[in-house]
UniProtKB/TrEMBL annotation:
Its EC number is 2.4.2.9. Keywords: Allosteric enzyme, Glycosyltransferase, GTP-binding, Nucleotide-binding, Transferase. This is Uracil phosphoribosyltransferase. Residues 13-214 form the Phosphoribosyltransferase domain. It comes from Marinifilum flexuosum. Its cofactor is Mg(2+). Belongs to the UPRTase family. Gene3D superfamilies: 3.40.50.2020. It catalyses: UMP + diphosphate = 5-phospho-alpha-D-ribose 1-diphosphate + uracil. It is an enzyme of class 2 (transferase). It comes from the Bacteria.
Amino acid sequence: MVIHTLGENNSLFNRFIAEIRDVNVQNDPLRFRRNLERVGEIYAYEISKTLDFADQSVETPLGTAIASLPKDEVVVASILRAGLPLHNGLLNYFDRSENAFISAYRKHTEDGKFKINFEYISSPSIDGKVVILADPMLATGSSMELAYKAMLTKGTPKHVHIVSVIASQEGVDFIKNNLPAENTTIWNGVVDAELNTKSYIVPGCGDAGDLAFGAKLG
Ligand SMILES: O=P(O)(O)OC[C@H]1O[C@H](OP(=O)(O)OP(=O)(O)O)[C@H](O)[C@@H]1O
Ligand SMILES: O=c1cc[nH]c(=O)[nH]1
Ligand SMILES: [Mg+2]
């Protein structure tokens, strides 16, 4: 399985990740969401380089130009709710793509543990298409695995790009060991070493869903 960690290279991308993590910037939810969106835009550009391209002619007012354009059909998929700003960023660039949404969230129990609740998927057929499955946080990897399996009920994809912004090493290893290697690629912004006792990524950024959209009950 090919794994990219974009934050290992020096670029403006690292500024967006740093602001997403920064407790002094997180008090501005608009900026938090916009930074996730900007990261999504950069991922879209990087993932676009892996697609198949074909020449197409474009009529200009003065003649005909040849453009090499992506020919793959793309489905942008994300996990509610923290995935929404990242989804928007991907869709800003893959503006002709189809879209899918999966609800998968941590349902906490009284013993302090949680299980992943799945309630909803809205997706087109993914047969032969390139699926970009996005969630900003890849902690244990359980939500992503569940979302991946839910997507597979909608067809057989040509390729699946798993996109996270902040991942844990455990989450990356889990995906690597549980998803097929040959047509899956993982894209992380950064990979942190630790999960705490509540399975939050450390140093991570905190709860991405709450930072983007506010605290929720339950
Ligand atoms: O890798 P995992 O251990 O499964 O954890 C990661 C998941 O947890 C968060 O969602 P959360 O349940 O907080 O829902 P939210 O997006 O509604 O906040 C996050 O957005 C991921 O979906
Ligand atoms: O660190 C984490 C883990 C799961 N979900 C988050 O939002 N943050
Ligand atoms: Mg959350």
